[in-house]
């Protein structure tokens, strides 16, 4: 049996799939420790999970959109987070003596800690941000990101520069998407696509199921955590799009109190939290910003989508959903209610979208999810057992865009 | 002393900062301005995060006003140079700082020397409204908590307009007052704050916006930061109480420096009350001096934007909303595949010499974030190979 240390970021969309994998490893008899903020992780991981606590530190808010969002993600979040969490992660490595680290692609400190300890480690990709390398056509942007990682490496007191891209473990890359959605990845060659890793979440006993009218079709609207003005503006257009459909459609909108003005109460339910996995089997369509978790959760249940991407990997995911025919994409910033309604009705009424979503669902099921990820992580134990301290053989990508 | 106007007030402001320089620096460090916190974030006990919070405010204004790295900056009311050293340091800006206080200017120059940026940050004892700098000599006019001291705010906006180059940025953060009528008690609170802090009056954020527009600025935006900065007056952060302990020490200070030094100590509780009751507000403003158009570039803006409109599937209203300074990344949210399609459409319309995707690929991340439609039009104007250099509107938007 092995010992696994999990390192992620305090972001729900990142921790949820990794939590499913850690639970699968624990079920298979392995010992798992998480290093991170206990106040954030505990509600996700449950009362029995072992957590090496690292205090949560406030970082600068991220820009909402575009390249500015990419810049602030690295400058204001990924790099500072690496700096403040590295000592705690390294303490956990010293105390727990893991055989393998499972590291979020954006938790650069985990990669550095694994290098320093000479341990095998896996990169886990809860987003598709890095997988399709959207910046490969912008070499200076890619070089700038490499520079941020190199700075984190140097700040950690590591000699020289990172031996390879810290987002991509030379040992294993686990991505929570499937080839039926993303197509086979042309790089790196150690990537396994296991599909979504879904774990049971605490039940939402407050959800007003008596509101639910089984005679109507149902839409879930969820666009993640946004700044108030962006959310208000989008939700107002969503409500206008839905208004004439009340006889046939009920919608659940995930939004903080007060961000949706005057929804028609019988037709549109606004709640800040909803039991997404309980709703999914009952849904006819999802309107989403295209976060990978929501997209994959919907497709894992064969539910087609209307995707309005905002930033990060969302445009990539939206493009993939449209390409495989499992939904439509709209422009988040400017789509008007009439267009949104037309796209939503198309997705609801044209069986081709649901059929495509079902194809993706079946391929996800075959990909194996959390259990498959756990089996791949177990293979790293063999490397660890043979392992003598010192650097591992480095299966470094040959792609020229990634400086060694 | 009653705050006056004009020269009398300037003398009072000069004197106020001369006599409180060491007090502020001792208590607040190099940043003589508010701190900035996230919602729900509590200031560290005893001001442990003072520098982080005040430094954060500087970075927030840099972000909000979109101050480009490497800019030439006029810092109006530079204090002892804390923000200017940030701009001149990591951001590589060249900064001219002005303050009414000779002591602040001297201290700021010392600090620039110590920080090794004296070549890029210089500080002068000058009135912000008569600095003598030539027209259009700055990319950015930066006023961080100084506008409250200026009685003639319309003149400030006019002078900022004169000093900025076309396309340049005005970045303001300022104390302000709630928009609308105040009742007698609220007016009295404001009067006391003004008196102790040597300020003529407060304007509301809305009034600042109107003044900027009246001076000819464009793309004016404001943000209310009151909740984010109010912690600055939390007693444990402001540490005013510590100095209040010694009545003797206070009397001694007043004897040495004049009784107006005590305004420094009165500010804390009054400001706290002001923020708590919503009477005192705090906000930032950004505004752009309109760019002078090159007719060949101007003529290309709409057709170039129209080609993008076709790529992203938008309508005429969208096209009408595009102005020269609209950002390709942050405003239009052009994604990489849309950029590629736009680039192809541009090369079809304007010749193979136009390779927008290749041009953007050569830009670093800061330039990509700042890229405007006018920049794209200028690029097309400079690289078009369709033999129609001065011919306006060859795109599909011919009308």
Instruction: Give a count of the beta strands of chain A, DSSP E runs of length 2 or more.
Output: 13
Can you count the beta strands of chain B? 7
The CATH homologous superfamily of the largest domain in chain A is called Glycogen Phosphorylase B
The outline of chain A comes out as globular
Region (Disordered) (chain A): 384-404
Organism (chain A): Actinacidiphila bryophytorum
GO biological process, one term (chain A): antibiotic biosynthetic process
Pfam family, one (chain A): EryCIII-like_C
Would you write up a description of this structure?
The complex is a heterodimer of chains A (404) and B (399). Chain A is an alpha/beta fold and 404 residues long. Chain A has 13 helices and 13 strands. Chain A has helices spanning 12-27, 38-45, 66-96, 108-117, 139-155, 179-182, 228-242, 276-279, 292-300, 314-323, 337-349, 351-367, 369-385, and strands at 3-7, 31-36, 50-53, 100-104, 121-125, 172-175, 191-193, 217-222, 249-254, 268-271, 285-288, 305-307, 327-329. Chain A has a seven-stranded parallel beta sheet with strand order 3-2-1-4-5-6-7, with helices on both faces. A six-stranded parallel beta sheet of chain A has the order 10-9-8-11-12-13, with helices on both faces. In chain A, helix 9 (292-300) links the parallel strand 11 (285-288) and strand 12 (305-307). The longest helix of chain A is centred in the first third of the chain and has 31 residues, at 66-96. Chain B is an alpha/beta fold and 399 residues long. Chain B has 18 helices and seven strands. Chain B has helices at 6-28, 50-65, 82-88, 102-115, 153-163, 184-197, 205-214, 226-229, 235-238, 240-244, 247-257, 263-277, 295-312, 316-321, 336-350, 356-361, 365-370, 373-383; strands at residues 72-76, 94-99, 121-125, 138-144, 164-177, 218-224, 280-288. In chain B, helix 13 packs across helix 18. The interface between A and B is medium-sized, with 24 and 27 residues.
